[in-house]
Every structure is written in structure tokens, then in C-alpha cells.
Amino acid sequence: MWAAVLLPPYLRDRNDNKAAGAQSPVSNKLNSLSRSFGHRDRSGYLPVTSSSLGSPQQAGSPLPAGSRHPLTLAPSTATDFRHGFSWMAKYFPEGRTLTSQIEERLWDELVGVGREASPVIFEDQYLSTAGAFYELLAGHDRMVGDLRPLVYARLDLEFSLVCHPYDVCIALLLEEAGVLYEHPLGGFPDAPLDTTSGIAWVAYANPFLAAQARPILQKVLRQFLA
Length: 226
What we know:
With 226 residues, the chain is α/β, with parallel strands linked by helices. It folds into two domains: 1-69, no CATH class; 84-225, D-Maltodextrin-Binding Protein, domain 2, CATH 3.40.190. It is built from seven helices and seven strands. The chain has helices at 9-12, 25-37, 96-110, 129-137, 148-154, 171-177, 207-225, and strands at residues 3-6, 45-48, 84-88, 121-122, 141-146, 180-182, 201-204. Strand 3 (84-88), helix 3 and strand 4 (121-122) form a beta-alpha-beta unit. Helix 3 crosses helix 7. The protein is globular and about 55 Å long.
């Protein structure tokens, strides 16, 4: 078992420019970790062995700096949405009611809402677009979308914290893996390449799921956003 802790620059360099003397709690913690694991370079990587994680596995050597290991990702091959995870971004109170109404209508037409004793659609939002993309690539989620620009426009809300073009700049990874990435109303999720424009998108893990949900989602959106 191997793990590596990657420290962001603001933690990495927190104490670099301080004179000798009392150190910050962060710096003290890093120094303690360095002594425990034997090495910490300027990159901020802390090699962690199975023993340091309390694993019953036999302790090994630290993860070599610059080493590469294969990562296998595969989107879900499910042919329906039942008993799986699918969601639309609802990170803030603004627009949450309308987004939930859209989702509830979508699921009611797809699988039926309230017709069984136990729900069959589950939601586990990831609080970032890149994280949502990963959940699709890893096969955890079957459909994910971000309707915020459409919903806010319908409600006449000016809200800057939406998905932007730079948030979806790695969407090519989805397409290469077989995930269908598109605008919720059809076509490619196009937007000016700037830092302020909002972008709405939806992604389906495979063509079978897209064929079921796409026409219903587009119909529901036209009804609620008209």
C-alpha cells in the first residue's frame, strides 16, 4: 500500500521567508512529518509508507520521487439509472428549488418517484467540476450536470459563482473515455473563452444512459425554463 501527500504551495512555503526562531504550527507539523518519513523535498511531497498509515501490511520503502504507476479508469457500463448515483449541481441556496424540481420531474418520468418503498436514485455531489468529472471517469456516477447558468437566467439572478470554461477545460478526458459531454439542451457546451462566462453542461457515463435521459431532460428543461 502506498500513499503520497501533496502539499499546496501556500502550505509548502508558509515558513520559507521567516527568520530563525519560533515556527508556525504548520511548519512544525511538516518538520515532524519529515522526521517520521525521513525526507521531504521542495516539491512538497511527503513519502508515506504503509506503516505510517497504520496498515497491517508489511512496511515498504517510501514512494520514489517521480515514479509512475498505472491508473485504470472506466466509466459506468450500467444500462439504466436505477440504484446508481446521478445528480445536478446544487451547491448554493440560490436556484436550488428550481434545480430540484427539474431533477424530480426528470426522475419521475425516467424511473418513477415515490412508487417504491426505497428510493432508486442516489446523489453524492462533489464540490468541484473536476471532481465531478473524476466520479464519471471512475465509474461512480452515471449522470452529472451543472444547470446553474440556465437556472439563474430563468430566475433573473446575477450570480458569478458558476461553472466557467476553465472549469471544464479537461472535458476531452471524458470524451476520450467514452463519456458523453454536452449542453443540457443539446449540442456542445460552447462559451467564450474567458474567466467570467457561465457554462452549463451535462455528462452521461455511456450512450445507453444518454439515450434514455437526454430527450426527457431536454423536454423538462424547456418546460421549466420557458
